[in-house]
Amino acid sequence: RASDSRSANLLLQSSFISPSSKGIYHFMPPLVKSLEKLTSLIDEKMKNICAQKVQMSMLSGKDIWSLSGRWDAFGKELITTNLGEAKHCLSPTHEEAVCKVLSQTFNKFLSYRHLPLRLYQTNTKFRNEPDPQRGLLRCREFLMNDLYTFDTTKKAAVETYNAVCNIYEEFFKELNIPVTKAQAGSGLIGGDFSHEYHILAGVGEDNIFICPDTGQAWNSECTNIEKKLDTLKQVDGIEVGHTFYLGKKYSKMFKTSFLTPDSKPVPCEMGCYGLGVTRILAACLEVLSTESGMRWPHKIAPYKVCLVLPKTGSKEFENGTAAVNNVFDKLQNYPLLKNDVIIDDTPKRSIGWKTKHANLIGYPLVIVFGKGLNSEEQYAEVIIQNPDQQLNFLLRSFIMQHFIFMYCA
Amino acid sequence: RASDSRSANLLLQSSFISPSSKGIYHFMPPLVKSLEKLTSLIDEKMKNICAQKVQMSMLSGKDIWSLSGRWDAFGKELITTNLGEAKHCLSPTHEEAVCKVLSQTFNKFLSYRHLPLRLYQTNTKFRNEPDPQRGLLRCREFLMNDLYTFDTTKKAAVETYNAVCNIYEEFFKELNIPVTKAQAGSGLIGGDFSHEYHILAGVGEDNIFICPDTGQAWNSECTNIEKKLDTLKQVDGIEVGHTFYLGKKYSKMFKTSFLTPDSKPVPCEMGCYGLGVTRILAACLEVLSTESGMRWPHKIAPYKVCLVLPKTGSKEFENGTAAVNNVFDKLQNYPLLKNDVIIDDTPKRSIGWKTKHANLIGYPLVIVFGKGLNSEEQYAEVIIQNPDQQLNFLLRSFIMQHFIFMYCA
């Protein structure tokens, strides 16, 4: 069976995470496929603002964290190691590191002409969560997308900030998942350019306050400041993104400067931005799934289509297999579905069992090859269990065009 | 300039790694682009043997390492952390973890019908190298591709082993880099199914012994066993891959069993396989580069084509820009070159400087728009600095077909 990549060893498709330690998980094949799609989607968005991809080391020397004062500020949430001559932690974030990279690599070369400069990565981050819970929603080892931006002036930095907010909103729109953008506390950071992106859900641990008239939202640090609490509606949210205008806080510390037209070094105006990649996936599943099974934003479903074969050895099996092979090849040639079609040929299982299983896993489209399959009269049942109307329309048109023998449920 | 993704902020394209700590590096944009290509190439090969991608946690609890006895065996090379209730290390390899995942996830469900089962990942590994050196050739945090295979019998495991060796050889062939497959010591592992893949290079730290008559090779553990040392040629190699037949060593420990047709649980026959991803990249650069600059296997060059613009403000600049825009758009539409073309429009630099710089970076194809550019008579100089004849032929044909005004150097 492993020699047939089309069925992709179905057993493995029913497992998404496997616990490693408390708050730490292994990601199983369908989850990896979904996370790679999510990462590609973010890559596309980052390309639109000309951000370039880096990969910062996960191990990070104490020196830069002492300089910023955050070795102590993070305290027990920092995971430290026994490595080498000096202390090292596992990076939960990279403001210090990215500033040091730029100053040590481009010292004296970085000019106003090179700005705006935008660097990002999507990789594993670490945080010693005292109370990890709810699977990927709050864990100790997680995937995060972090973006660091460098500008010449505050005005330019605000333009960058707005450009990032725009691509964040586009990104969530493509996932077809509603988010609430809430003004966040400025705290130690300064300015009023900090916002959080929340997916509203009962399991959310953050309190968001929304003005029923304007739709504006604030996190709990911000309310009462601008609005009276009793006029606002309180909801629970899962924080999935955060944007900060940082000013010169880190660029001054690490001498991350650019040269002005008259060759004077000036610290860059910075912003930093984060998307919780594994958390976004978990939050989407939390919000979209129903009692009958998991439901995925179709752009990041591990597979878009599942073809269900008749029971091995049954009277429909032979014709069903021929039909599945035909449909599989046709669908694979359709760019939207390349590597996105899987065949359920689990031995010994009935069509009913396989259909129910496909429904549990939440493939956006399930095609069941079962009833009255013979050479004269072939038809299959098409089940669309996907909330996205656009994809449904596309799939229906495609099916009608290529497989007139099918019945769309 | 950041608003123009085509020039991709050229300054950033001249930096590949940036030191973080001793033996630990940040990967800069062109290196990330190259590593992503390398990872995709491996993904393709893994797909050919129906291996499925997982992502195992980097933090790993002491319990599984104590069970195998490798917590002490790795000793000081294991990087440990302060995390949580029990001790955790940063995984240098995942035999224990993958066995535990399978037994805890599929306990009682894994049957002979599900085998062969092949799981792989490409992610960051950690090892406390006592003497990290030569950049990415020997470091403490590195990218590695690791594959774990599970079969019903030794015969089936050997078939899997040979299939993996075949895709490894295809992989190196696609990189156009010669490797030597050397028989490695069986040591504690058992059987004679262990081989190393070496890129031969003066800087290599491993001694390989080659039989001049047959071309067979052995690593230093193996010689004298089968051949007399004085009949063999000794060469230096960089170990870039390793394949092991493991038998039931780990599957017995972790009760990673499958059910036979008569429902008897039997430990799986295992293999494990590794490709040093960052090391392969470094070794290729080490072997291919010349005194005039870096040279890449063209499939993993960060960009395949660099378009060199005339100096800003020069008399050729305006027409040159129009020509570059035209060529850029045409090349981008060519699937082979999508996202693989970059424009050097560095301000204040002459064509000579830019051409030399492009040569240093080693773009496989450089097109210089410089001489006699006017509306009547446009031509550009094409420099092909790539060792791959196949790509050269393809590029030449393409250029001849689309840009008859060009002169191929």
From TrEMBL, chains A, B:
Every Aminoacyl-transfer RNA synthetases class-II family profile domain range: 36-297
Enzymatic reactions: tRNA(Pro) + L-proline + ATP = L-prolyl-tRNA(Pro) + AMP + diphosphate
Keywords: Aminoacyl-tRNA synthetase, ATP-binding, Ligase, Nucleotide-binding, Protein biosynthesis
Gene3D superfamilies: Anticodon-binding domain, Bira Bifunctional Protein, Domain 2
Molecular functions (GO terms): ATP binding; proline-tRNA ligase activity
Catalytic EC class: ligase
Family matches, as InterPro entries: aa-tRNA-synt_IIb (IPR002314), aa-tRNA-synth_II (IPR006195), aa-tRNA-synth_II/BPL/LPL (IPR045864), Anticodon-bd_dom_sf (IPR036621), Pro-tRNA-ligase_IIa (IPR002316), Pro-tRNA_synthetase (IPR050062)
Entry GO CC: mitochondrion
Protein's GO biological process: prolyl-tRNA aminoacylation
Coiled coil stretches, renumbered: none
PANTHER family linked: MITOCHONDRIAL RIBOSOME PROTEIN L39/PROLYL-TRNA LIGASE FAMILY MEMBER, PROLINE--TRNA LIGASE, MITOCHONDRIAL-RELATED
Protein name: Probable proline--tRNA ligase, mitochondrial
Organism: Ciona intestinalis (Transparent sea squirt)
